[in-house]
Amino acid sequence: MLRPPEQSRSFRFSINGIPASKRANAVCELRERGILPIEPLPDSNLRLDITKWTLPGVGILSGMLCGLRQDGTPESAGAGDHLFFGVNLAGRSPAIQRGRELAFGDGDAVLLSCAERTFSIPRPTPVCFVGLRVPRKQLAAMVTDLDDRIMRVTPGATDALQLLTGYVRTMLNEQALASPDISRVVGSHLLDLIALSLGATRDGAAAGQAGVRAARLQAIKFDIVANLASGALTVAGVAARQRVTPRYVHKLFEDEGTTFTQYILRQRLDRAYRMLRDRRFSMHSITAIAFDAGFGDLSYFNRTFRRRYNATPSDIRHDASN
């Protein structure tokens, strides 16, 4: 019997709408239900706004914490023989495990074990963070002396770590992870980037570099899709947001047998095609749809649309209405 492909799942929780007197109880309930191993710190102003993602092979927790202690134990739901790679996107925290305590600040990361002993990350002050739970076995095959990397700070200036955090920001949304195939690829990319951040073996680094290129290209593609309607969508703008050079962006698309411009055109035409077939946009003029898809020249839109679909925009709308 064939198993259906694994699909990403997400859970969002915030205490912003909960009265201050009831916030501690709401946090404790998350722990009791096995959803999130956190606990209020005494006499603290609690802040909690998190999203929990479950991807094939990777668990992700991201958001804002303050006045809380984040724990990890072998008994935590789904922990098993896993490792936790925590990154402080903004803010500073201590991390405690193996009888030691260290501090990691803005952009820094720390690797902790979910299996051997309890770890603790108190968040007495506001911290924007992302935490990645990954299988020890897979990461051990990619990183030299993995156990020695536990309870060591990976500096925020590390190139692979910067790419990892940028990739997480780009990819963690419902649209990006709607496809099981994409969510599986994202999980693989995250594992590669963690390994490179920690210091991969020679073989792991070689494989990881391929993962880096794939991760960068995927992030660039989602950046493009998110900004399709903008008339200011340029390779220079995308490159700046992704912290690479325009030449590097062009090279990534060339390696796929296409170009940056061709990819944008295809995505804009596909968006217009979907809108023309969607009854929710039946009252929108074809001109409005073309502009919404990012076209500034209506004649160019009509010409390229007909070339791609062998039909006019009016033909597609008419067919969809019948």
Structural account:
The chain is α+β, with helices and mostly antiparallel strands and 322 residues long. The protein folds into two domains: 9-222, Sandwich (Jelly Rolls), CATH 2.60.120.10; 227-322, Homeodomain-like (Arc Repressor Mutant, subunit A, Orthogonal Bundle). The chain is built from twelve helices and twelve strands. It has helices spanning 23-32, 136-140, 146-149, 159-171, 180-198, 202-226, 235-242, 246-255, 260-277, 286-292, 298-309, 313-321, and strands at residues 9-14, 38-40, 47-55, 58-66, 68-72, 82-90, 93-97, 100-104, 109-113, 119-123, 127-135, 153-154. It is globular. The two termini are 39 Å apart.
Summarize the structure.
43% of the residues lie in helices and 22% in strands. The protein is an alpha+beta fold and 322 residues long. The protein folds into 2 domains: 9-222, Jelly Rolls, CATH 2.60.120.10; 227-322, Arc Repressor Mutant, subunit A (Orthogonal Bundle).
Give the low-confidence spans: 1-5
**CATH architecture designation of the largest domain:** Sandwich
Please identify the top-level CATH class of the largest domain: Mainly Beta
Find the CATH topology of the largest domain.
Answer: Jelly Rolls
Q: What percent of residues are in strands?
A: 15-25%
Query: Could you tell me the radius of gyration in angstroms?
Result: 23 Å
